[in-house]
């Protein structure tokens, strides 16, 4: 089964909004064995929509469309669907009752005519009820292809994908198996990893595909197997993974599908009943964001301080003024004090601290752009490392976040194994 | 001039990575008057790439392609470009020298053969030097269409867009003018706004297009004018904007192109030399992130505390235990103490605090899912409001962030006008 995902909206084409809907839909379809062939973002323009529908017709089994379902004039998806399917809009009484109730409850006012017109749907479509918004999803077939139209508001789209679209596809279609395994490596670049596994890679069968996903400091290797015999695919993937780990076991840190470093760390901390907090300067809260983004993080993540202003390092984190004056605010000594004091304040087992200059211009210190000190307080003491991450700014921040997590994982393993 | 943006990579099609490159490129092209007709994400598959190139050939002037330029086997863009343009790869000596120097400097080792092969480029292409990475950009023409291929690593892509692609397009092409004006409104829903401006909207000329960009609590109205006479377009847009503001001036909070609420707030704080800090519980640092994401935020943003664990509210923010016991951790009283103490600790003019239950399950308090208290400490005292943002979790967080900023803007205006 093949799918395409279409996002409708000029705000995406002028770069005003980043399309995150397509990624969510792709992941949901991938999980049930549907291969997404293409994602497209197109204009709120009738002809562009019609052309794209025609291009997808009978080349994929499912087309998922988001956007253009609002009540205003620039939302033309519904009318265009009627044109494409030679259909007319009819009023759906269940949807209208839902819209009226929702507006009354949420906004304490009566639904306007424009609100009520959200209940107008193409007569040939199956309505997918939207419990969390006013625009319903629509499921409508032509030839070999089902077109599914969803609102573009992310949480409404997610609700409809999870509660309506995926269950309906699972019920109505037979699908092959797609299995991914992702191996997370760190410390070596893409080309070095590739050279080390060259023979292994050349020996892969045609139904197993390898992809390299490089990020600063780490490379993920994704193996994808596709076929009809799930048992066979699983066994074969496991066999290949084992031989891969024999080759590069020294740099492999995780094995599961979604095993990012922060997920691995989260599991380790939970298992060992350990806690963590962060004190960040140049990384501006991004380490906290990455750690707290893992589901279940409240079990081990106690909180963070972001000390943008230098004086806050002394005040909030009790870094001594004499340390700052003797060594500068970007220094190993300040990073160490930040980490130790953060560990004390939050009463955690571990604390990460960063101080550095991410650029583009020099800050409160004389440190060159790219210099970052990362300190890690552990139950056994504190370690600190100096890095030069170069530039630009976002690379410095990303690499500092990556290195912090690497240091943390190494130390946790040392302490708990 | 029309453009298309193509992203190559299976990691996007299975939802493992969100494509943020296309948005950046779209914004850069829009700024120089190039209209992006379509964005596509396609597979690392030779035939898919060839088909897409053929589809774009002579229908747009510029095709910008990212991804697939790494040194490993799954990176097939270069070979596919050779097939499409009936070309062969040759070694570019300048690029090779750059790669060798970069690897030596960054990694303190010699470049491998795989590194050096980054210098292989199609003979017909113009090389776009990449100062921040090993894979060069490529500019190659066929018929009426220029194909520009860039690496997918975001900061390398951004470097090449800013320093190579945009300057080259500006030098070599005549372009029309596209002007956007965005009006930010808040407090009323999309359909209410639409009804209020219906006559005004119907009266817009064909060369001015209106789009509604709704978000929880606010609606942005984007006007786009396109044509060859810049002066005429500017005047006409201004005239339409003035009449729009006469209609809905009571809910308009900003007028500029990129005027989000956080940008408006940043400008107000900078102008008046006021500062801000945040103390967040249920919003988990997102308010800090939104505020500090504005360029120049270090002028007014002092930092934040994220108090995930209840005990940290007492310890780090000195919220009194008796307040928590008397009123529960999700209460107006706790929010007020958090804000006042945050203002004191960071020595700022303003401080925002949030406490609530974003769901999906109940936390340390008995508050229903969706209940959020937002407190704002100002130079004149502290205000607090209670909200029920319903569910799901991300909607609760987004609306809490939006409401916090609205409350802040209102208070700043009150104090400084």
UniProtKB/TrEMBL annotation, chains A, B:
SUPFAM superfamilies: CinA-like (SSF142433), Molybdenum cofactor biosynthesis proteins (SSF53218). One of its GO terms (molecular function) is hydrolase activity. Keywords: Hydrolase. It comes from the Bacteria. Residues 4-172 form the MoaB/Mog domain. Signal peptide: none annotated. InterPro entries: CinA (IPR050101), CinA-like_C (IPR036653), CinA_C (IPR008136), CinA_KH (IPR041424), Competence-induced_CinA (IPR008135), MoaB/Mog-like_dom_sf (IPR036425), MoaB/Mog_dom (IPR001453). The keyword Hydrolase applies. Belongs to the CinA family. This is CinA-like protein. It comes from Flavobacterium succinicans. The gene is pncC.
């Amino acid at each position: 089964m093949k799918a395409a995902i279409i996002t409708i909206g000029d705000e995406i084409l002028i770069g005003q909004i980043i399309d995150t809907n397509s990624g969510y839909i792709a992941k949901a379809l991938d999980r049930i064995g549907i291969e997404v062939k293409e994602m497209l973002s197109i204009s709120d323009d009738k002809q562009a929509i019609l052309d794209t529908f025609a291009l997808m017709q009978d080349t994929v089994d499912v087309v998922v469309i988001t956007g253009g379902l609002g009540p205003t004039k620039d939302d033309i998806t519904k009318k265009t669907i009627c044109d494409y399917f030679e259909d007319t809009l009819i009023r759906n009484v269940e949807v209208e009752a839902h819209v009226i109730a929702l507006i009354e409850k949420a906004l304490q006012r009566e639904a306007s005519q424009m609100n009520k017109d959200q209940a107008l749907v193409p007569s040939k479509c199956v309505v997918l009820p939207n419990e969390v918004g006013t625009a319903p999803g629509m499921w409508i077939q032509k030839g070999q292809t089902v077109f599914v139209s969803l609102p573009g508001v992310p949480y409404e789209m997610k609700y409809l994908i999870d509660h309506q679209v995926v269950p309906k596809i699972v019920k109505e279609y037979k699908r092959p198996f797609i299995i991914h395994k992702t191996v997370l490596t760190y410390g070596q670049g893409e080309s070095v990893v590739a050279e080390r596994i060259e023979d292994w890679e050349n020996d892969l069968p045609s139904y197993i595909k390898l992809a390299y996903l490089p990020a600063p400091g780490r490379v993920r290797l994704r193996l994808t197997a596709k076929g009809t015999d799930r048992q066979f695919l699983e066994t074969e993937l496991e066999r290949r993974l084992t031989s891969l780990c024999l080759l590069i076991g020294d740099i492999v840190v995780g094995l599961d599908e979604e095993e990012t470093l922060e997920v691995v760390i989260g599991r380790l901390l939970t298992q060992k009943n350990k806690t963590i907090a962060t004190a960040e300067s140049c990384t501006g809260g991004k380490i906290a964001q990455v750690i707290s983004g893992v589901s279940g993080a409240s079990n081990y993540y106690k909180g963070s301080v972001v000390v943008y202003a230098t004086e806050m390092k002394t005040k909030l984190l009790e870094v001594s003024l004499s340390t700052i004056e003797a060594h500068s605010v970007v220094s190993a000594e300040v990073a160490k004090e930040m980490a130790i004091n953060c560990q004390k304040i939050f009463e955690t087992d571990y604390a990460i601290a960063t101080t550095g200059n991410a650029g583009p211009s020099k800050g409160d210190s004389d440190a060159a752009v790219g210099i970052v000190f990362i300190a890690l307080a552990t139950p056994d003491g504190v370690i600190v490392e100096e890095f030069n991450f170069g530039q630009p700014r976002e690379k410095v921040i990303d690499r500092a976040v990556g290195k912090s997590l690497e240091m943390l994982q190494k130390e946790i393993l040392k302490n708990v194994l």
